[in-house]
Structures are given as structure tokens and as C-alpha cells.
Design brief:
Elements: H1 2-11, H2 13-34, H3 39-49, E1 57-61, H4 62-65, H5 75-89, E2 95-100, H6 111-128, E3 136-140, E4 152-157
Parallel strand pairs: 2-3
Antiparallel strand pairs: 1-4, 2-4
Length: 158
Amino acid sequence: MKARAVALARRNRWALSFADLCLLLLGFFILLHASNGRQQEVMSGVAQEFGAPVVKNERLVAKALFQPGEAMLSAAGKAEVAKLAQRYRGNGNAIEIRSVGLDQATNRFDNWDLAAARLGALARALKAEGVPRDRVVIRGLDQLSESKAGQVFVIRSM
């Protein structure tokens, strides 16, 4: 009887490993869900742990760059874009601009139109500051969500 119990325990060891895997996956998906709109940053952090090259993201808040409810850069926004363009002008990599979050709708724009217009304005401002047009890649509006910070731009070199 004892030998039979030992054999049964050996045969069912895979269930413990499978349960561990399921718990790890559950924890990972809870982490992604809790990141609240920062999935790209979490995924790049996980990729770095597995040996992927380090990619630095910069986050710019739309309230600091644009006039309220508009897609026109403020004076402070133009200065910030000029500093950003100076950093990225020299390297030959493409620059990805991604929009995360929405600002409140105004009379002129709804949430999505405002986010799209601001992405375009940011790309045009980078081009005006000397960043070649073919290096600017606009990605956005695919992961828009309501956020307390409003619209945020994630900029990274690819």
C-alpha cells in the first residue's frame, strides 16, 4: 500500500508545477491590469529582464504642452518640444509618439479628435525643429482610456 501511494504522488507532481505556472500567469495579468494605461512600460521592463535592449521612454503631459482644449502648443510647450527635438535630432533612430489617455471634450473637439489633433501637432512641431519626417512614427488612439492625468504622450526612440 505504501509503494502505491508513493507511485501516485510521483505521478501527480506535474499538477503542482502546473498550479505554480497558473499562479505566475495570474500574477502577471494582475500586474498588467493594475498598471492602468502603462502596459507598454511594464512590457518593456519585463523584456529588459529577459535581455532585451533598454529603451528609454519619455512622458509628456498634454496640459503642460498645449493650450487648454486646443491642439496648439503653448510657449512652454514649444520650448519643451525644442529640447526634445534637440535630443532626438542627432541619433538616426525612428521616434515613436504614442498618446495615452484623453482630456475632457470641448466645444471645438471631442475627446478622440483632440487627442489625434495633438498627436499631429506634436509630430509637426518635431519636424519643424529639424527631426526628419520619415523618422517620426505616430502610434496612438489605439489604447485611449480615461485617465486622471489627462492625455499623456509617450515618446521613445526605436
